[in-house]
Amino acid sequence: MNELLSLPQLLGYLALLVAIIGVLQTNDIKLKLWMIAGYVVLASHYVVLGSMVTAGVLLIGILRNIVALKYHSLWIALTFSITYFAMGIMMMSSPIDLLPVIGASINTIAIVTLQGIKMRVVLIVSSFFGIANAIVVGSIGGLAIESMLLVFGLVTLYRLFKRQHKTNQADLNL
């Protein structure tokens, strides 16, 4: 990993702070605005680290998040996934550079087309690509963000399963 207090890592820590503030929002609009701000800071972090593919993925992700506020269809998800792959292939210097592209494509399918437990499971899968990419690139903040999202995703998945189990038990008692 790069020096702990270097400019790239400081930007990563700032992105982590923005992500934490975003996750704590109870208002969906505020959450999405904080997500957009976090993507901008994190993209800057990856530019300074020299991971242009990851920065490009994050910048496309800003537009994806705005579009996903209003539209939910497989076509939208596929359009963004194709855009991610086109950009990634054009900018990559080695196949490992496609880790964030694959993760973002999986994430897009989840956010735009799925909901509930299915969405959470797919988001958890996508987080492993973000974790791997952060390790490869040397992003401490990115690793912390992706790890936090993985843990929160697992906790939320557990809570959803627990709620579903209670609902199923209540239905059986009728």
TrEMBL record:
<dbReference type="InterPro" id="IPR019629">
    <property type="entry name" value="Uncharacterised_HI1736/YgjV"/>
</dbReference>
<keyword id="KW-0812">Transmembrane</keyword>
<dbReference type="Pfam" id="PF10688">
    <property type="entry name" value="Imp-YgjV"/>
</dbReference>
<feature type="transmembrane region" description="Helical">
    <location>
        <begin position="36"/>
        <end position="62"/>
    </location>
</feature>
<keyword id="KW-0472">Membrane</keyword>
<feature type="transmembrane region" description="Helical">
    <location>
        <begin position="143"/>
        <end position="161"/>
    </location>
</feature>
<keyword id="KW-1133">Transmembrane helix</keyword>
<feature type="transmembrane region" description="Helical">
    <location>
        <begin position="74"/>
        <end position="92"/>
    </location>
</feature>
<feature type="transmembrane region" description="Helical">
    <location>
        <begin position="121"/>
        <end position="137"/>
    </location>
</feature>
<feature type="transmembrane region" description="Helical">
    <location>
        <begin position="98"/>
        <end position="114"/>
    </location>
</feature>
<protein>
    <submittedName>
        <fullName>YgjV family protein</fullName>
    </submittedName>
</protein>
